[in-house]
Design goal:
This protein is an alpha/beta fold. Helices cover about 55% and strands about 10% of the residues. It contains 37 helices and 20 strands. A five-stranded mixed β-sheet has the order 2-1-3-10-4, sandwiched between helices. A five-stranded mixed β-sheet has the order 12-11-13-20-14, sandwiched between helices. The protein has a three-stranded antiparallel β-sheet with strand order 8-5-9, with helices on one face. The chain is globular and about 105 Å long. Keywords: Cell membrane, Membrane, Transmembrane, Transmembrane helix, Transport. Belongs to the binding-protein-dependent transport system permease family.
Length: about 850
C-alpha cells in the first residue's frame, strides 16, 4: 500500500502558516506574554507566606477552617523546599490558560448544546484535541511562538479545552425539557431562558468541566517545561534529565500541593455560585451538629476584607522589593540555551558567570537539542555553547544554518563512540558487538532522542556494522544513561552505552572505547559556540570574547567536576569554585578593554542600598554600586521615598544609605529610629538648606524680601517630596518665622521642582524653589540663595552614611570603606554632571565615565590589600 504523506502535509501546513500568518502569531505572543507577565507580577510581588495567607483565606471562604489551615501549611512547605518561585510561575501559566479556555469553551459548549449540527461538527475536533499526545502540541507551538511560556500556554489551551466544551454541552442538554418548555410557554426570550434557567441548572456540570480544565492544564504545564516554559515543569524536566531524586521529589510534591488546592477550590466554588450547591452546603452543615464550627465559612464580604488587608500588607512590603541594579554591561539581557550534557551545562554556566561579572543579565535554560536549535533560529535564544559540528548536529545545522552564526570552536577534537566496561572481554571494536547481543541484553543504552549522536547511531552505525536486528537503542537521557552505567559497573554487568570524549566518565569508570574502523561516527567534531543571526552585530564585544574562547581537556573536566560537586541548582557556585582555582581566567576570556580590579574580602555579598531621588543620593549610590561590582559584590539598589527608606533601614530591609542629612534636615527620622541604626560617618561637610530665586529677580535677597514680593511669585513656593525633612522644617519653622504661612508650598517632587525652575528661567519669570547646597542647579542657573537672618533653617547639615545596626557585622569590609570615604564639592559636582549628561536610565554609563576621568578612585574608595 502506498505511503500516505500525512506528516509531510502537516509539515507543509505548519510552514505555510508560519510564513503567512507570522503577524498573527506575533500578536498572540505579545497578548499572552503580557497577560502572563501581569498575573505573574501580581502573584510574585507578596512575600511567600503572605500569598499563602491570602490563598488560605480563600480556602476558608470556600471550604472551611480545616481547608484554610491545610492550605497555609501546604504552601508554607513549598516555600521551605525552595520551590515557591517555580510554583508561582506555574500557577500564573495555569490561570492564564484556564481563563482563555473558559472564555472560549463555555460559549462553544452552549452553541453545541443549542445546535446539533455544531455539536456534531465539534465532536471529532474535540476528540483530536483530547487524544493527541500532549507533547505533540509543543512542536508547532515552538515554530509559531518560539520558546518560553507562550507555546506552553497555547498548547495547554488546546489540550485542556475539550472537557469544558463537552461538559457545558452536557449540562445544558440535561436540563429538564419541561422547565425549558414552561419558560417558553410564558413567552420568555431564548436568551433569558438560557441565562435564567439553563445555565443556573447546568452550573454544577459546567464547574466540573472547569475543574477538569484546571487539572489538565496543570499536567500540561509540567510538560511545557521542556520548551522553556519555566515553573515546576522546568524543575521536573531538570530532575528527570539529571536523575536528581531530591529535586524530582520536591518539584513533584509542589505540583501535588498546587493541584490539590486548585482541585478542591474549584470543586467548592460550585457551592458558592450555584443555588443547588448552596442548598446542599446548608444541608451538610446542618448534619454536622456540634462540629459545625469546623465548616463555618466567613461571609463573602468578610473574606474579601481579609484578602484586601493581606494584599495591602503585601503591597506595603513590596516597597522594599528587589532593586533593578545594572552592571557594566548596562544590564543588557543575553539568553543562553543548553542541552543537559555535562560540557554544555559547564560552559553555559561559566559564560553566565563571566557575563554577570561584565555587567550583563544572562538567562540560562535547558532544552532538548531540537527545540534549542529551532528556538535559536527564531531568535529566542542568543547563544548556545555546545554545538557538535560538523557531524553530530549536522542535521540541525543543515536545516537552520542560514539563521545562525558560528562563533568558533572552543574545543577540538571530540569523538563519538560506544563504550563498554573494561571487564567485558573480547569487545574492542564495533565489529565485536555482533553476535553478542544476548550478553548485553540486546540493547545499547542511549541518551536524549534528539541528540545528533543518537541519529548517527541509528541511521548509520547500526547499519554499517549489521547490528540493527540484534540491538535495540534505548532512548533516555544523559543522566539516565550514566545512572544505568554506574549501576551496571557496580554489579559487574555487561553494558554498552553511547558516550563521547571528552567526558568525566572515562576518569571515574574503567571503560573501553570501541574502535570504529569503518568511520561511521565520523572523524570527530569540534565544540562550537553558535549565535542567533545578528548576535555579533547586536553584541560585538561578547561575540569577540566568544570567538577567542578556548578550554583544554584538563580545564573542561575539572570544571565539570566542580559543578557536579556543587550539586543540582548550585551550578554557579561550582563555577566560582573553579574560577578561584583558575585566577585571571575571566579577564583573559573577557578583557572588555576596561581596567580589572581585585576582588574584595567579602566578594559575592549582596548589600541592599537605598536612595532617595535626589541628585547627590543618585550619584553616590550608583557610584558605590559600580565600585562594589568591581570588587565582586552584588549590590541591589532601591529608589525609595524618604519615609519608607528610613523605615526599611530600621527593619533591616535596607542595609545602608548614603544621603542622610543630619543633624537637622532628617532629625525626626533619626530620633525615631536611632536605636535600630548606626551612624557610619559623614562624607560631605557642610551643606545648607535654602529657598532660591533666579538672580534676575531684583530686590529679593532674604526670606523677609520674599514675603514682601508675594504677588510677584503668585504666592507660591515650589517644593520637593512632602516627606523630606527640609519640607517639614519649611512649613513648621521657616514659614511661621518669616510670615510665609499664606504661601502655597507645592510638593510634586525634586524632578518637578527642577522642571518648573527651568521653565520659569527660560521665560525669565519669577520663581521661588526649595533647594540645597551642594546642587548642580547652582552651576547651571544664576540663582540667589535667600539669606536666613533668623537662622530658622538651623545649623548646617553633614551628608552622612547611615546603616541598619547589623550593617557593620554583615558587611565589615564595605562598612570600613564607607567610614573612610569623603568627597569634595568639585568631585560631587562633576559626578552629578556626568550622570546628568548620560541621561535618565544611563546612570551606570555616567558613573563609568566619571571613574575613567578619575584614575585610582576605586582603589582610593575601596582599598583591597
Amino acid at each position: 500500500m502506498p505511503r500516505i504523506q500525512i506528516g509531510s502535509w502537516a509539515n507543509d501546513a505548519v510552514n505555510w502558516l508560519r510564513d503567512n500568518l507570522d503577524w498573527l502569531f506575533t500578536l498572540v505572543t505579545k497578548v499572552l506574554g503580557g497577560l502572563y507577565d501581569g498575573i505573574h507580577t501580581v502573584l510574585a510581588a507578596p512575600e511567600p507566606l503572605l500569598l499563602a495567607g491570602i490563598l488560605a483565606v480563600l480556602a476558608w471562604w470556600l471550604r472551611g477552617l480545616p481547608a484554610a489551615l491545610l492550605t497555609f501549611l501546604g504552601f508554607a512547605l513549598i516555600d521551605s523546599i525552595e520551590q515557591w518561585g517555580p510554583t508561582v510561575e506555574s500557577l500564573s501559566l495555569v490561570l492564564v490558560a484556564c481563563l482563555i479556555t473558559v472564555v472560549v469553551a463555555v460559549p462553544l459548549g452552549i452553541w453545541a448544546a443549542r445546535s446539533r449540527v455544531v455539536g456534531g461538527a465539534l465532536r471529532p475536533v474535540l476528540d483530536l484535541m483530547q487524544t493527541m499526545p500532549a507533547m505533540v502540541y509543543l512542536i508547532p507551538g515552538i515554530l509559531f511562538f518560539g520558546l518560553g511560556v507562550v507555546p506552553g500556554i497555547v498548547a495547554t489551551i488546546v489540550f485542556s479545552m475539550p472537557p469544558a466544551v463537552r461538559m457545558t454541552e452536557l449540562g445544558i442538554r440535561q436540563v429538564d425539557e419541561e422547565l425549558v418548555e414552561a419558560a417558553e410557554a410564558f413567552g420568555t426570550h431564548p436568551r433569558r431562558t438560557l441565562f435564567r434557567v439553563q445555565l443556573p441548572l447546568a452550573l454544577p456540570t459546567i464547574m466540573a468541566g472547569i475543574n477538569q480544565v484546571i487539572m489538565l492544564a496543570l499536567s500540561m504545564v509540567v510538560i511545557a517545561g521542556m520548551v522553556g516554559g519555566g515553573g515546576l515543569g522546568s524543575s521536573v524536566y531538570n530532575a528527570i534529565s539529571s536523575v536528581n531524586v531530591a529535586l524530582g521529589a520536591e518539584a513533584g510534591l509542589a505540583v501535588v500541593i498546587l493541584a490539590m488546592y486548585l482541585d478542591r477550590m474549584t470543586g467548592a466554588l460550585n457551592q458558592r455560585v450555584s443555588p443547588l450547591g448552596r442548598r446542599a452546603l446548608a444541608k451538610a452543615q446542618a448534619a454536622l451538629g456540634g462540629m459545625k464550627f469546623l465548616q463555618w465559612r466567613p461571609a463573602t464580604s468578610v473574606a474579601m476584607v481579609g484578602v484586601v488587608v493581606l494584599a495591602l500588607v503585601a503591597g506595603g512590603m513590596g516597597v522594599f522589593g528587589k532593586g533593578a541594579g545594572q552592571g557594566g554591561g548596562n544590564g543588557r539581557p543575553i539568553s543562553l540555551g543548553y542541552v543537559n550534557w555535562d560540557e554544555g551545562k559547564a560552559t553555559t554556566y561559566l559564560w553566565k558567570e563571566i557575563l554577570e561579572q561584565r555587567g550583563y543579565k544572562p538567562k540560562v535554560q535547558a532544552l532538548e537539542a531540537g527545540p534549542l536549535f529551532a528556538g535559536q533560529a527564531r531568535g529566542d535564544v542568543d547563544v548556545q555553547t555546545n554545538a557538535w559540528l560538523p557531524t553530530t548536529h549536522a542535521s540541525y545545522w543543515k536545516k537552520y544554518h542560514d539563521r545562525l552564526e558560528d562563533l568558533g570552536t572552543w574545543y577540538d577534537k571530540t569523538s563519538l563512540e560506544i563504550a563498554v566496561p573494561s571487564y567485558v572481554k573480547g569487545v574492542k571494536t564495533l565489529d565485536d558487538l555482533k553476535g553478542k547481543g544476548g550478553e548485553f541484553g540486546g540493547k545499547i543504552t542511549g541518551i536524549e532522542p534528539g541528540a545528533g549522536e543518537m541519529k548517527i547511531l541509528k541511521d548509520k552505525v547500526l547499519k554499517d556494522y549489521g547490528l540493527g536486528g540484534e540491538y535495540k537503542v534505548q532512548e533516555s537521557s544523559t543522566a539516565s544513561m550514566l545512572s544505568e552505567l554506574d549501576r551496571s559497573v557496580r554489579q559487574k554487568k555487561p553494558i554498552a552505552v553511547t558516550l563521547w570524549s571528552p567526558h568525566w566518565a572515562y576518569d571515574k569508570y574503567p571503560l573501553t572505547k570501541l574502535k570504529d574502523p569503518k568511520g561511521s561516527f565520523g572523524s570527530g567534531d569540534g565544540l562550537h559556540l553558535l549565535g542567533r543571526k545578528g548576535f555579533a552585530k547586536d553584541e560585538p564585544e561578547v561575540a569577540r570574547w566568544m570567538k577567542h574562547f578556548h578550554l583544554d581537556e584538563k580545564q573542561l573536566t575539572s570544571l565539570e567536576n566542580d559543578i557536579k560537586s556543587a550539586g543540582e541548582g548550585h551550578e554557579q557556585d561550582g563555577v566560582r569554585t573553579w574560577l578561584k582555582k583558575n585566577p585571571g581566567l575571566v579577564d583573559k576570556v573577557a578583557p572588555g578593554g576596561k581596567a580589572t580590579y581585585a576582588k574584595g574580602r567579602d566578594a559575592g555579598k549582596a548589600p541592599n542600598i537605598g536612595y532617595p531621588a535626589w541628585d547627590e543620593g543618585i550619584a553616590t549610590t550608583y557610584l558605590w554600586k559600580n565600585v562594589l561590582e568591581k570588587r565582586g559584590y552584588r549590590p541591589n539598589i532601591r529608589n525609595l521615598d524618604i519615609g519608607p527608606m528610613w523605615t526599611g533601614l530600621s527593619t533591616g530591609q535596607i542595609d545602608v544609605e548614603t544621603d542622610a542629612w543630619l543633624p537637622v534636615a532628617q532629625k525626626q527620622y533619626w530620633d525615631k529610629y536611632r536605636k535600630d541604626l548606626v551612624d557610619v560617618g559623614p562624607w560631605y561637610d557642610k551643606t545648607s538648606l535654602e529657598i532660591a530665586v533666579p538672580s534676575y529677580v531684583k530686590g529679593v535677597k532674604t526670606l523677609d524680601d520674599l514675603r514682601a514680593h508675594k504677588d510677584e511669585f503668585k504666592g507660591k513656593i515650589i517644593g520637593i517630596e512632602p516627606g523630606t525633612g527640609e519640607m517639614k522644617r519649611l512649613k513648621d519653622t521657616v514659614a511661621p518665622a518669616y510670615g510665609l504661612d499664606d504661601f502655597e508650598v507645592t510638593s510634586a517632587g525634586t524632578s518637578a521642582m527642577l522642571a518648573e525652575l527651568d521653565r520659569a528661567y527660560q521665560k525669565k519669570e519669577p520663581v521661588a524653589v526649595v533647594l540645597w547646597s551642594p546642587h548642580w542647579a547652582y552651576s547651571k542657573y544664576e540663582l540667589t540663595k535667600l539669606a536666613d537672618p533668623k537662622g530658622t533653617w538651623g545649623a548646617n547639615n553633614q551628608i552622612k552614611t547611615v546603616g541598619n545596626k547589623s550593617f557593620p557585622k554583615k558587611f565589615p569590609e564595605f562598612h570600613g570603606w564607607l567610614k573612610n570615604w569623603k568627597m569634595s564639592a568639585d568631585e560631587l559636582g562633576s559626578l552629578e554632571k556626568a550622570i546628568q549628561d548620560a541621561g535618565k536610565g544611563n546612570e551606570d554609563e555616567g558613573v563609568e565615565k566619571w571613574i575613567g576621568d578619575h584614575p585610582g578612585i576605586v582603589d582610593k574608595m575601596a582599598p583591597v590589600k
